[in-house]
Design brief:
The complex is a heterodimer of chains A (250) and B (313). Chain A is an all-alpha fold and 250 residues long. Helices cover 82% and strands 0% of the residues of chain A. Chain A is globular and about 65 Å long. Chain B starts with a strand and ends in a 6-residue tail after the last helix. Classes of the chains: A mainly alpha (250), B alpha/beta (313).
Chain lengths: 250, 313
């Protein structure tokens, strides 16, 4: 466990001197800020029509899906690919560190960095709760939505670390990761709409959007959704560890 | 301290090392000498627990490199050929990171001490990205030494350094080798001769020979080669030289010079010089040619092939 933490800490600190990390943070925070402002302006302008409705966090957390698909590949692409390119992977693989500790440590470092960005966006629900909506917004929705965003982030990062371990080239790692996310977020659900019966069920279950928008972002926390996300995290980290092991053999 | 038995590694269809067997005792500096692609790095990577062998066994400090890889890695310090450094860290941060991974108590204090050992203490808080090649090599060495390992494995530790840095690095290695086992690879013969207690010559994945540098030298210097330059045309010079007693072979070079070889103990140079001048040539230069590493390999592999009754390839 200690090795995981040591590697995660180095990775986390590295993001704060990485231009890509700042670009990602800027992109996420700017987009969320714009969406929040537009949303508030909309409510103020249409306060008569939307009588009885109050603004909530869903426009903010809802935008995260798209933002994470684009930004997580940039965060994860270098994690292991760059170590392989720089030759420092040889350093870590000949230190008394288990392969899974290395992969999980890398993932945790990226996860903590993304959590830092997410923590900044909590300012918007706080403004809504304490500044704009009386007597406050639906707290449970805030919690389940943010849990959803955190789980999507964690799953994407785990898959990204997996792909980064497979490729020595960062650019290759980026595009493969991006394609996988596009597939998982937008494309995999289509067969579920066309097919019928249990096949349709399978594709619906594999569709990440459903677990996010229809469940967590809508305020419901179900075991099947949690199992889905935790399975993806395990799959990504397992792929990463296996890729590192395979690398040793070649 | 290091015991290698029948070690073999295949990369797909290519055999990188083939049935290597050797050992190294405590307090011994063993040199791994061979051309690029001979299998030096592969052997070192197996011994450091980076990759498993295809066949054979190796133990380091009493632990099997495959079965007890983590125990081996705790006891080995390794400086790979491409020095593995994080340019975005200071020398101190980097060593502290490695000390933490190796569970060293008082990591920061140990990092300072180790930097002092490689004469980099005053640059402890500078970013590694700003370091010269020599300084990078020293930080890499410090990383390999930070846990005071029983066994030190250094892959081409002096490559890319300037002459002063090479001397300094060799001194550091000699100092370390007094009480620890050091296995280092090099393709420079003189380097192996200067630092090592014993030299293993490896070529195409096989150990060609194994001996102390002194013995190796005397075995190899069975003959001496000399190059001659004359003013103008050197046509016909070959014939004159080859008639001199003691001369074994004569060869004209493309640059107009002539190279001849004589057996040790029968120095033919005075007679050759006399013969050249008597034949009317103006002798400009006559100097001995050292055996290059390639020639040594050729020599050794030829011996090897003869010993096993095969024709040299």
């Amino acid at each position: 466990m200690r090795n995981i933490w040591i590697i995660a800490k180095r990775e986390y600190n590295h993001y704060f001197i990485s231009p890509i990390a700042y670009v990602v943070a800027f992109m996420i925070l700017l987009t969320i800020g714009i969406i929040f402002t537009i949303n508030i302006l909309y409510f103020i302008q249409n306060s008569f029509q939307s009588f009885g409705q109050v603004p909530d966090v869903s426009p903010i957390t809802g935008a995260f899906g798209f933002l994470l698909v684009l930004s997580v590949p940039a965060i994860t692409m270098r994690l292991l690919a760059d170590e392989a390119r720089m030759g420092t992977l040889e350093l870590l693989l000949t230190a008394p560190v288990r392969d899974y500790e290395l992969v999980v440590g890398k993932w945790l470092g990226g996860f903590l960095f993304m959590l830092t960005i997410l923590a900044v966006t909590l300012v918007y629900p706080l403004i809504l709760n304490f500044g704009l909506v009386s007597p406050g917004i639906d707290q449970q929705l805030v919690m389940s939505s943010y849990l959803g965003v955190i789980l999507v982030t964690a799953s994407f990062l785990a898959l990204g670390v997996g792909f980064s371990a497979v490729f020595t080239n960062q650019v290759a790692a980026f595009f493969v990761t991006l394609s996988a996310f596009v597939f998982l977020w937008w494309l995999i659900g289509f067969p579920g709409q066309v097919l019928q019966g249990s096949a349709s069920e399978v594709f619906r279950y594999l569709d990440m959007k459903t677990h996010f928008y229809d469940a967590l972002s809508a305020g419901s926390i179900k075991l099947s959704d949690l199992v889905y996300f935790f399975s993806l995290i395990a799959l990504g980290l397992f792929t990463g560890t296996t890729a590192v092991e395979v690398r040793r053999w070649h | 301290m290091i015991q290698v038995n029948g070690l073999t590694k295949d990369y797909g269809a290519r055999r990188a090392i083939d049935n290597l067997t050797f050992d190294a005792e405590q307090g011994e500096i063993v040199g791994f000498l061979g051309p690029n692609g001979a299998g030096k790095t592969t052997t070192m990577r197996i011994l450091t627990g980076y990759m498993p062998p295809t066949d054979g066994t190796a133990t380091v400090a009493g632990y099997d490199v495959v079965e007890e890889s983590l125990e081996v890695r705790k006891r080995v310090g390794y400086l790979p050929e491409t020095v593995p450094l994080y340019n975005d860290m200071t020398a101190l941060e980097y060593l502290k990171f490695m000390a933490d991974l190796r569970r060293i108590p008082d990591a920061e204090e140990r990092a300072y001490e180790t930097l002092e050992g490689v004469n980099l203490k005053e640059r402890a808080n500078s970013y590694i990205g700003t370091f010269s090649k020599g300084m990078r090599q020293r930080v890499g060495l410090a990383q390999a030494l930070i846990h005071r390992p029983e066994v030190l494995i250094l892959d081409e530790p002096t490559i890319g350094l300037d002459p002063a840095q090479v001397v300094e690095m060799r001194n550091v290695i000699r100092e370390i080798g007094k009480d620890r086992t050091v296995l280092l690879s090099t393709h420079i013969l003189s380097e192996a001769q200067q630092i090592c207690d014993r030299v293993l010559i490896i070529n195409k994945g096989k150990i060609v020979t194994e001996d102390t540098p002194e013995n190796l030298q005397s075995r190899l210097v069975g003959s001496q080669r000399v190059v001659i330059h004359v003013r103008g045309d050197s046509d016909g010079l070959n014939g004159k030289i080859s008639k001199v007693k003691g001369v074994r072979t004569v060869e004209s070079k493309s640059d107009g010079s002539v190279e001849f070889e004589f057996g040790a103990g029968e120095d033919a140079r005075p007679q050759v010089a006399k013969a050249v001048i008597q034949a009317g040539y103006e002798l400009l230069e006559m100097r001995p040619v050292g055996l290059s590493l390639e020639e040594i390999f050729l020599e050794l592999t030829r011996d090897n092939a003869n010993a096993t009754g095969k024709k040299p390839s």
